[in-house]
Amino acid sequence: MGKSKKPRAGHRSDPVAKTVKPPSDPELAALRESKILPIINNLKSADPKSRSTAASVISSIIQDTKCRKLLLREQIVYTVLTQTLTDAALESRAAGWGILQVLAQEEEADFCVHLYRQDVLTAIEFASKLIQDKVLSKEAPFAKLPKAEKGFTSSIAASLVSLLMALAEAEDEILESISNNNTITSLLFSLITYTSQDDEDPISAIRGDAMACLMVLSEDNTNLAKYMTSTPASIACYETLVSLKDDVSGDGVLACTVLHNIYASLLEVKNLSPTIDVADDADLIPTLTKAMAGFVPGQGEANGSGWSSPSEFQQLALETIASIGTSLGVEMGGSAQLFTKKEFGSGAAAAGKESGDENDDEDMDEAGDDVGDDIEGEDGDEDEGDDDDDMNEDEIEADMDMVTGVDHGDDNIDDLPTLKSLVQIAIPELIRLASLQPTDDLSLKIQGHALSALNNIAWSVSLIDFSEDSNNDVLGAWTPIARALWQQVVSPILASDTADVDLATQVTSIAWAVARALHGETPLQPNEHRKFVSLYQATKGAPALQDPEDPFQALGVKCVGVLGQLALNPAPVDLNREIGTFLVTLVAGLPGTPTADAVEAFNQLFDIYGDEEYAYDAEVFWKSDFLKHLDGTVSKAKAMAKSVNKSQQPELRDRADEVVMNLTRFLSYKKKHKPMQMTVRERS
């Protein structure tokens, strides 16, 4: 019988106790011997004064890259976490937190993940309670503490806030852990609600950073939003934010942003019972607009520091307006994500699935079988075949309505205070900023933020169904704004033939949204549509700069989208013919056409030629023989869909599958609705 092995756990060496090899670089080796090792030894000294001095020295040299890397090699993080932060001397603890805060700022995000795994939140929780006890103490008011103690306390508080922000931005799991820790969030609430007790109170200077940290924590955070609006311990903080929202300053804009995050997080929450009135976005737009209106080209970025700098809070104001523009879709009852997708896609998919249990035309049945066999079968996802009964004319038309139609809410402009405030207050200023001729980096950033805000607002508005009479007031308010957007922003940038792909992408996206709402009233300049064709051809196949993983955000897709909207009824026949030919050429060019571009082109063609009552249907679709060309794309479209890896690009695959399904239905519909003269000509 073999000998049992002895447990080895007790003999394992402490990885931290391992001797650190000196760096091979002579300069770094000399720096380590002369400066780093003596400081590390003093930090571990039994003498309290030596430890405090060493911690202070490290906090002063940690920003130097060479010193920082050497200190990390010497396990400085382990020493600080296990010894410095538990030191009896407040000065040492302040220096220790300062060291971690600088490391979190200077190192990559994985350093913060490492700190989190070392249970740094427990240490932060302990320190947070200490700070609150000192700052909120009734027995020993903070203002009466010795100056040195106040300085060290405020230093720890500032380091904690900065460290918390870095941790929250590093990983969603960390953010959730922080926001769910009542002791830590209570520290932020206390720093925000704190009232200065004298002219040189160091704690009051931290409020802006505390609000910035809360801003990061509160984004898309329903639990924190509920907590802040319904829990007595946090309501004081919320009320402080409300009291600051009218200030045109860094603190005022930060307060507006946090309030917006809370409001946006609660928009879709049912059975909500806040114990206070929740400020909505319409309350915030005036302050945000005043803040961004203060921008003057050439003002520079070095005016003020931190959140007191106008350039900082002006950009934040624009970012918040952009976020309000996105959440506007949710507020109006739509989906904030719809502006990245073709809206009939989900409806078309539903139509395809539901129609399997209804009576189908023989042609539609055959097409459905082809889709099932050729596309879904390859992935092992088989659906039941369609019934063989015929569909009547009404059912076929209803089917086409599902392919090309969309249903939106019918809200009135007076029932949409946020939209009304955006239209009347914010958008005119956004148009001014978007029309800038940037001369420096700051102007370029401001223009980019303004374009993003206009884009989000325009897309949210474009989701409204303006065919409903109840939305006439909204359309009446939006039309002059949308026309101004095109004339003052879209046309000038298109005319400049910009080589900036990012700028061209933003402007094309705005143009698409405007055209969706205005259709025939889009103030298109002569031959202006050809600018989008040229943009497409110049950038064909290029990925989206802002979101390269999403092919539908690419400039090419946006060019196809805006062209399709410009070709819709009541577009002139010549314009429709030129754009229709371009779109048909794109889909006929498969597999040479990028999949996302082809998907969007197919969808636009379905919308443009989905109704035979349009004047251009006979003049363009039939006389240009589009049916023959589209018939020839069926096999190409199926191959296109099959070529997309479903696990790697699920959205692209789903939408490609939908296009194939809709294409067969569209062609079947068109064949049954040939103009009379075409049918007579064929028979003769």
Automatic annotation (TrEMBL):
Gene3D superfamilies: Leucine-rich Repeat Variant. Residues 1-10 have a biased composition (Basic residues). One of its GO terms (molecular function) is unfolded protein binding. Signal peptide: none annotated. CDD domains: Syo1_like. It holds the Pfam family TPR_SYO1. Residues 357-392 have a biased composition (Acidic residues). Residues 444-673 form the SYO1-like TPR repeats domain. Residues 1-26, 349-392 are annotated as: Disordered. InterPro entries: ARM-like, ARM-type_fold, SYO1-like, TPR_SYO1. SUPFAM superfamilies: ARM repeat. It comes from the Eukaryota. GO terms for biological process: protein import into nucleus; ribosomal large subunit biogenesis. Belongs to the nuclear import and ribosome assembly adapter family. This is SYO1-like TPR repeats domain-containing protein. It comes from Hypocrea atroviridis (strain ATCC 20476 / IMI 206040) (Trichoderma atroviride). The lineage of its organism: Eukaryota, Fungi, Dikarya, Ascomycota, Pezizomycotina.
